[in-house]
Amino acid sequence: MNVDDLIETAAVARRHYLDGRTKVQVAEEFGISRFKVTRLLNEALKQGIVTITVSLPDAVDAELSVRLRKQFGLKRAVVVAPPDESPDAVRNSIGQAAARLLMEMIQAGDVVGIANGRTISATTRHITSLARCDVVQLTGMALSLEADSVELVRRVSAISGGTPHAIYAPLTVGADTTAVALRADPNIMQAIELFPKVTIALVAVGSWEPPDSQLFQSLTPAERKLLLAQGVCADVAGGLLDSHGRSMDDLAGRTIGISLEELRTIPSLVVIGGGTRKINAIHAVLKSHLASVLVTDVSVARAILMNAGTHAN
User: Fold this and answer.
1) What is the CATH number of domain 3-46?
2) Whole-prediction pTM value?
3) Looking at domain 57-312, does it have CATH number 3.40.50.1360?
């Protein structure tokens, strides 16, 4: 390629790739056919005049993300590769990705629901700006102060400038009658009445076998044993699921928060969770078709896709 051809190729490539002009517009400007424009653009790539790179933040695995989204009919899926497999590293990587996704998704006027969980706490720490939106607590408070949903709601609403709606009550109580009385409290009722208006919700996944769940830890050993024997595999915002993704209402009467049926009606339900201990639990949530968006890590995605492929054959 001589110097004149090189200059023409570079000029055409600059107009198309940097200035955003269409091939037809470039052809008209340079007085050549659009077929020659295509040939010159291909030549620009071949000669290294133009180089194209595809980069994703936080080591997002694009292939696994697409495969997971298609396999389970999700609106979006983001699979991250943490620097190591320690729980803190996994939570932090998922939190960064989920925060970036929420900052992109949330629009002014949305009503955002927040459940409890350590991964949700990690997510809120990475949120730096949000469109103005009201924030609703979806579940009562967990045992861990780090995962306390009241604090998480306060943190997110402070960033968004919207109104926080908290639930000053535990996630579970000892008797159905206690739960009924708490739900009737005017302050708690105010938050519960907003559940149907939630447009985007952020929830985490708890695992029961092996145990890695705030809800699991809040129950007595006898209660855990009974529920495990009945097939509980995972929990989402206080709702229980078996390994097939079927809902189990054993704790529904004693739980303060949103139900699985109400979660299912939310237009964008963002489910987050990762780590090898949560593989079966996250797979159960995907089988339930609750999630519209999933943020997880490569170890979970690979295991779930392998399992899904095995059962498909």
Assistant:
1) 1.10.10
2) 0.81
3) yes
